[in-house]
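Tokens for Dihydrolipoyl dehydrogenase. Go.
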Amino acid sequence: MAKKYDVIVIGGGPAGYVAAIRAAQLGLKTACVEKWLSPEGTPSLGGTCLNVGCIPSKALLESSHHFAYAKDGFSQHGIKVGGVGIDVAQMINRKDDIVKQLTGGIAQLFKANKIDWLQGEGTLFPERVVKVKDHDGKVSEYQADNVILASGSTPIDIGAAPLDGKRIIDSAGALALTEVPKRLGVIGGGVIGLEMASVWSRLGAEVVIFEAMDSFLAGADAAIARDALRSFTKQGLDVRLGARVLSTTTSKKDVKVTYSNTEGEHNETFDYLLVAVGRAPYTANLVDPSVNLVMDGSRVHVDGNCATNIPGVWAIGDLVRGPMLAHKGSEEGVAVADRIAGKYAFVDYDLVPFVIYTSPEIAWVGKTEQACKQEGLDIKVGTFPFAASGRARAMDATEGQVKIIADAKYDRVLGVHILGANASELIHEAVVAMSFGSSSEDIARIMHAHPTLAESVKEAALSVHKEAIHMMNKK
């Protein structure tokens, strides 16, 4: 007889493992299916994010930032160093150690919460039966009152540049390079492409980014995107907009790229080519066809509560509508576990923060100025440059600005956009404020410590009504 659970989660990434932990906290007998194996062949929790995504990329971004600043920024502080070099192997080892610590920490949380980790590939069958094929090919069968599908996503492969894991690589390959390329090509000017380009550019690679769209960071506020492009170009990133890769040819030592733009066809040669054109839901062997699960294109169709068309079957994270962000999936995981336990749950999809961990960082929440204008909204806009911040000056981090968009009549904050140091942290003041329906005046009247970068948020809020203190207000 199949072992019975209250909840079985298929997928151990940020959506799945969080859902499992929350379900267990609520007293539900819980299991989580995860098939991930580390490069050493060891089972690992955390999915793409912890193993080859969010966490390792931030580790390399941090290391490369320190290197670049030691090489080019220390002298401004009167710090003299000589012969700054990079040990790529040590940098990668540090990244791998961080991954092991965090994935091991999740395993410990599973033990502490009495969650059964079913190692292998899980497939949903009718009547909420889950069959798990372990790494030796043995199949075990389990039964659940509720099944949460959380299998995440996988990098999109394109015909013009098929991944070979040698010269044409995905983000996981870019995180595991053992040498600094002389030339690195990147297809895709989105989050992954920009972050990986930043890492290897700081370490000395010549980086060319091919972005098929004519606009840079189309999802971001136009003014922020414009300033970011200017900053990245100054750093040495060669961002080519309207550049569509047509074909690639690989050899043992390089990869040749043919691309087109308004000026015709061109050829470039690189040591490696990173394909970072987005991700697609990972649904291979996730659900047996007999289940008759309704799909929405490549994603699983769900209602506003993340329930599928099958009673007792839920789907969360990258599998379903909305941005493919770890924190969005985690919040859905908590919400679904709460709903299963009979508790009220709500996820505000209008207030999902977006972050790009370049230098300077880019972060935003809510509506962009262009979206407000397209919707015909009457708005007021306030901005404050980090160049006018005393703390930013002291940090040598004066690039960028804070931009706040508010409703012209009611002053409710509609969007906040930040380009600058620590934008990934600063944006959460805006998320909290907007979740309580704050006006720009609410933020402007709150006392902020001096000197801090956060004062720039206050000043931008004051600027909405032309009342900024530490800059000239435009009439």
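The two ends are 76 Å apart (CA to CA).
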